[in-house]
Amino acid sequence: MDIPLSPAPGRTAGIMRFVRQRIAAREWPPGARLPSLRAMAQQHGVSKSTVVEAYDRLAAEGAIRARPGAGFYVAGPLAPLALAEIGPRLDRQIDPLWVSRQSLDLGAQALKPGCGWLPDDWMPRDAIRRALRQVARDPAAPLTDYAPALGLPALRTQIARHLGTRGLAVDPRHILLTDSGTQAVDLLCRFLIEPGDAVLVDDPCYFNFLALLRAHRARIVGVPHTPDGPDMDRFEAALREHRPRLYLSNAGPHNPTGARLSAAKARRIRALAHDHDLILIEDDIFGDFESRPAARLAADDSRDRVAQVGSFSKTLSASLRCGYLIAREDWLDALADLRTATTFSGAGLTQAVIARLLRDGAWQQHTRLLRQRLALAMPRAIRLLGALGLRPWHEPEDGMFLWCRLPDGIDGARLAQAGLQQGLMLAPGNVFSQAQAAGAMMRFNVSQMDDPRLPDRLATLIRTCPR
Amino acid sequence: MDIPLSPAPGRTAGIMRFVRQRIAAREWPPGARLPSLRAMAQQHGVSKSTVVEAYDRLAAEGAIRARPGAGFYVAGPLAPLALAEIGPRLDRQIDPLWVSRQSLDLGAQALKPGCGWLPDDWMPRDAIRRALRQVARDPAAPLTDYAPALGLPALRTQIARHLGTRGLAVDPRHILLTDSGTQAVDLLCRFLIEPGDAVLVDDPCYFNFLALLRAHRARIVGVPHTPDGPDMDRFEAALREHRPRLYLSNAGPHNPTGARLSAAKARRIRALAHDHDLILIEDDIFGDFESRPAARLAADDSRDRVAQVGSFSKTLSASLRCGYLIAREDWLDALADLRTATTFSGAGLTQAVIARLLRDGAWQQHTRLLRQRLALAMPRAIRLLGALGLRPWHEPEDGMFLWCRLPDGIDGARLAQAGLQQGLMLAPGNVFSQAQAAGAMMRFNVSQMDDPRLPDRLATLIRTCPR
Questions:
Q1: Where is the HTH gntR-type domain (chains A, B) (predicted)?
Q2: Under an 8 A CB cutoff, do B79 and A316 touch?
């Protein structure tokens, strides 16, 4: 395709800007037919050839498409448009998918203090090998058949039992197994929201919530987070101003801040949810890292408007993919149907391996060990970073994340870009921030900071980073 | 909730009907605010209390929701609405999800001639056990880490190699691994279509395509199918009339008809796709059952507008969940991002087990065996059904499906309902038909018909079915 590289002349550029604005505002959604050449020319008082040139340039850019004999249309596809719609405030190099891409595709040699999971050698590899061998021997193992629509009953029972030990009474019939915690959140969003619905998130929040909600074309509204939960004045103001349909948050040690929801705020949010017809999605993926259970949004008086999400990716394996969601019974049937329509069924064999690790206690024993290791790693990381001039926003009680303020004048995105050149994967604050208010912050994973090369590399990076 | 059971009085019923029609036509989409009580009363010349009663009854039905102090809103959630929007023509008991639900959740005792997959004991259980043990021993096995965004390179390489033996030259870098073939189709739909876009499907087609497209709110347009592909006159007429964005079909032995696309029709569809800016999704999930490769929509001159989907669910295991999609390079990046946003990453361990089964040739050897068994089962099933008065629409060259006409006067939906009472799972024609034109048809799976109890049970069922 010949993309004209010379700048467009004034009138042509004007038409192009007009079209781009309509598309950006979604007044002209993907697939909409553009005004005819003649109509556009008349409306803007330009010649038809000016409009032809503007449309051709926009088509070359991929913003619109020509259909032979049928005019010009706003280009799909939906997804890249929705995901790329990041707005002018955000550095395109550091969008919410940036951390995912770097984490998933960087080589094993890279140091990853910005990564969102534990190092491979912290994971229960021997227990997994043993469970694989046991399942391979088990004559009743679900080796080839489709799993039931809600997932393997044995694993749903184990999950209910485990949540019981954490004080959450859940009936296994209210648990739907999914292929990941993210997929559970995605299913709930498909089920609950319409394009244009407002959704509240914490600012900062898990960056993939932002990418996911953009794929759903939600109106994302960030509420500043504090060490004991959202800023409640801002939360209430956002309810009044935006009438959101959902509040999507993560319980347990908060990602990225390590904050801990207080019981008073949890109660207040439940009461507000009731009054404002707000649905709460509580992503509890880090809950098993808590030494002392914090408050949860889910409680007996809120079951009808809270859905909870969990997964084994952080404590057991992200390669044995399995998540789950807990929701009221009348939603669960529809969610199971939606899941069948969109992925058919779950991974029975994976579910059987995990059920075995829960049944024989190997997983529970391992998570206790993880909590102990993290409790030692946290103060070590605080000392290491403190020596480099980074100050924690809050000292988390547990979990793997430490949210830090960078030395004055250092921009997180720039530091992360420079780090990448040197095989150092960092998580700059603004990928977590809907308001792009965290340019001076950075998330660290305390479990990924034991490599002896790290302190020097980080020190050099900070010293040489342009301010 | 108190649902008023007495019939609504005339004026109230009139208002309710008016609201329901607006909602059904999506003039008032989920989340839209209903007119105020006063405005509605004025507009329809009724009292405010009549509108109050109508709204209350609609809220009790779940069609609308009250927000305290803020009026009434069209109820979400999206999904159950979209999936339940089946229209008056279709028997709600036998919707496109009916077969899925019955197949996934019926006990192992049930006879399943209507099921869409091979019996458990036709599957390579021993080879899977062996591969599990090998992976458990392999020091380099991806036991705990997240898989790369496109999926495990070893499996992508094996898939490209296998497709090469079938005459399809595919670069492993153009393959994205997913958790199922269905998920691959779903991702493509999320990427390519907008609510309201027209999508062509075969009539009859795989029933889950209908459920999936409804979840996307596509306008589904069925094109009658023939033994060598779609009816081309109707296909072209549909292109002109509906300007569809996509044609979603399945290659190889067609589900449910066992039809085989001719090379001439494949060429014609490619040419039309080019002229009408149509994108083709070719679900090739049954391709490995072909003894003699049939034509495909994907060809060297159409790579830019064809996406292909495959999976191992039918030939290897549906419990080791893994599908894949092949698409042009510039789509693949965006599809991988969309997948990261919505499910994060794939099941690395499952991918490693499958890669091993492909690498050592166990899977290839097993699929050869399956083709031989199916070639023997097909004529057996035709004889068995013929003796009961069922005639094949077409005698398929390969695959597991046989599309049959029922004896005169027998309705497939009714027969399937009666069958279920007797532990017999059947697949009535209309779940496959967008036009609901297949009430006299039924899909049989020849691999599921060797149980000696089947002939008598089926004979009794047909004899006693009311005509």
A1: 9-77
A2: no
pLDDT one-digit tens code per residue, B218-247: 999 999 999 999 999 999 999 999 999 999
Locate the domains of chain B by residue range.
Answer: 10-76, 92-121+364-464, 124-361
CA B169 to chain CA mean position, Å: 27
What 8-state DSSP symbol labels residue A177?
E
| A10-76 CATH fold | Arc Repressor Mutant, subunit A (1.10.10)
Cα–Cα distance for residue pair B31/A243, rounded to 1 Å = 11
| Cα B59 to Cα B427: distance, rounded to the nearest angstrom | 36
Q: Count how many Cα atoms sit within 13 Å of the Cα of residue B171 in the half-sphere of its side chain.
A: 8
Distance CA B49, CA B189 (A): 45
* Binary contact (A194, B148; C-beta < 8 A): no
Q: Is B215 on the interface with A (CB under 8 A)?
A: yes
Length of chain B as a residue count: 467
Segment A77-118, tens digit of pLDDT: 433 333 333 222 233 455 667 777 777 666 667 899 999 999
The H or E element that residue A308 is part of is: strand A306-311
Q: Quick one: fold of A124-360?
A: Aspartate Aminotransferase; domain 2 (3.40.640)
CB atoms within 10 A of CB B49: 11
Query: How many Cα neighbours within 13 Å face the side chain of A274?
Result: 12
pLDDT band at B108 (very low <50, low <70, confident <90, very high): low
Sign of CA dihedral A237, A240, A242, A243: positive
Q: Would you state the structure tokens that stand for residue A448, as one six-digit string?
A: 């990924």
Which token pair is A276? 């404002």
Label residues A206-237 b or e (16+ Cβ within 10 Å = b): bbbbbbbbbbbbbebbbbebbbbbbbbebbbe
Token pair 């189709």 is found at B185
| Residues within 8 A of A (CB atoms), B 119-158 only | 120, 123-125, 128-130, 132-133, 135-137, 142-149
Q: CA A3 → CA A87, A277, B3, distances in Å?
A: 24, 50, 62
B183, B213, B349, B363: best to mutate for the A interface, most A CBs within 10 A: B349
* Between A99 and A222, the higher pLDDT residue: A222
CA distance A136 to A56: 60
A188: nearest Cα among A293, A23, A76, A342:
A342
Cα(B102)–Cα(B427) distance, integer angstroms: 10
Among all residues of chain A, which has the CA nearest to that of B183?
Answer: A343
Q: What class has domain B124-361?
A: alpha beta
Does residue A194 sit at the B interface (CB-CB below 8 Å)? Answer: yes
CB atoms within 10 A of CB A191: 24
Give the β-pairing of B306-311 and B323-326: antiparallel
In whole angstroms, give the CA distance from residue B240 to residue B278: 11
What does the alpha-carbon distance between residue A139 and residue B45 come to, in Å, rounded to a whole number?
A: 71
B83/A contact by beta carbon, under 8 A: yes
If pLDDT is split at 50, 70 and 90, which confidence band does A302 have?
Answer: confident
- Judged by DSSP in three states, A299 sits in coil
For Cα atoms A328, A329, A333, give the angle at the middle one, nearest 5 degrees.
Answer: 120
CATH class of B92-121+364-464: alpha beta
A415: Cα within 13 Å, side-chain hemisphere: 29
Indicate the burial class of B234 (C-beta count within 10 angstroms; 0-12, 13-18, 19 or more): middle
Question: Buried b vs exposed e over B341-369: b needs ≥16 C-beta within 10 Å?
Answer: bbbbbbbbbbbbbbbbbbeeebbeebbee
Asked whether A394 and A227 are in contact (CB, 8 A), the reply is yes
Residue B370: CB partners within 8 Å, gap ≥ 6? B118, B122, B289, B315
